[in-house]
Amino acid sequence: MGELTGKVALVTGGSRGIGAAIATRLAGEGAAVALTYVRAEGRAREVAERIEADGGRAVAVRADLTRPDDAAGAVERTVRELGGIDVLVNNAGFLAYGPLDEVSAEDLDRALAVDVRSVFLAARAAARHMGDGGRIISIGSCFNGRVPAGGFVLQAMAKSALVGLTKGLARELGPRGITATVVDPGPIDTDMNPADGETAAFQRSLTALGRYGEAEDVAAAVAYLAGPGGRYVTGTALAVDGGYTT
Fold first, then answer.
1. What are the two backbone dihedrals, phi and then psi, of residue 175, each rounded to the nearest 5 degrees?
2. DSSP code of 146?
3. Which of 23, 30, 117, 208 has a CA that sits 20 to 30 A from residue 37's CA?
4. 12 near 78, Cβ under 8 Å?
5. Are 65 and 112 in contact (CB under 8 A)?
6. Burial of residue 155, with CB atoms counted within 10 A of its CB: 0-12 exposed, 13-18 middle, 19 or more buried
7. Where are the domains of the chain?
């Protein structure tokens, strides 16, 4: 039996990359898992089907978490179909890149909506159903601690705001035994940022280990925070960045 046997987790943006790795890892630890998607229905269902083929329970849920009704609906469906919610992983994100003069007001609104607003809405909805031992874990960015090049104003701003939101959640929900944390990945080999991409050599050079991480490295950190080992960790960020911020 895994450390999360009997628990229920909701992973936002769980159809690919880091989100899919997190959903799979939590399921491997025994949790029943709901995972959200906006457009990639086929990929989300593939992740859920793989989990079920391995003996787990999973459901794919279409939801735009920037919308209050969708955020609440994803939580309610998780509770209804899987029996509750113990762990919320806010993984859905918006990669905003571009020179300051080229950043539009729409880009600004989108970055805040996906990286901050959706987390607030999902956390608020999930906390209503969580009891002692509940976990809210959000996926941030190494840009919280280091911005080594231009073009990442929106990314650094939104993910830093996520840390402030998490500290507020930790303080408010702590008396109920609910923790709130952030995991800050560094360069991770995904289809959005492949280890053989145009900027990969530069990104590797910024890490102490000199290499990219894998999505499973982030998933392992989330599993730790979601499990018994993370019970006294709250209001803080855990860097999984190969020494990017050293």
1. -60, -20
2. -
3. 30
4. no
5. no
6. buried
7. 8-240
In the chain, what is the straight-line distance between the N-terminal and C-terminal CA atoms, in Å? 37
Buried b (16+ CB within 10 A) or exposed e, 32-55: bbbbbbbebeebbbebbeebeeee
Instruction: Tell me the three state secondary structure of residue 217.
Output: helix
CATH topology of domain 8-240: Rossmann fold (3.40.50)
Q: Which two tokens stand for residue 91?
A: 């993984």
Residue 167 buriedness (CB in 10 A; 0-12 / 13-18 / 19+): middle
Q: How far is CA 230 from CA 20, 68, 135, 150, 179, in A?
A: 21, 29, 9, 35, 9
* pLDDT of 69 strictly over 90: yes
Q: What is the mean pLDDT of residues 199-213?
A: 96
Q: Residue 239 forms beta bridges with which residues?
A: 184
Q: What is the pLDDT of residue 144?
A: 84
Confidence at residue 192, expressed as pLDDT on a 0 to 100 scale:
87
What is the rounded average pLDDT of the residues 140-166?
A: 90
Whether pTM > 0.85 for this model: the answer is: yes
Positions of E strands within the chain: 8-11, 32-37, 58-62, 87-90, 135-139, 179-185, 236-240
Residue 128 and residue 182 in contact, taking contact as beta carbons nearer than 8 Å:
no
Q: Which H, E and C letters describe 158-174, residue by residue?
A: HHHHHHHHHHHHHHHHH
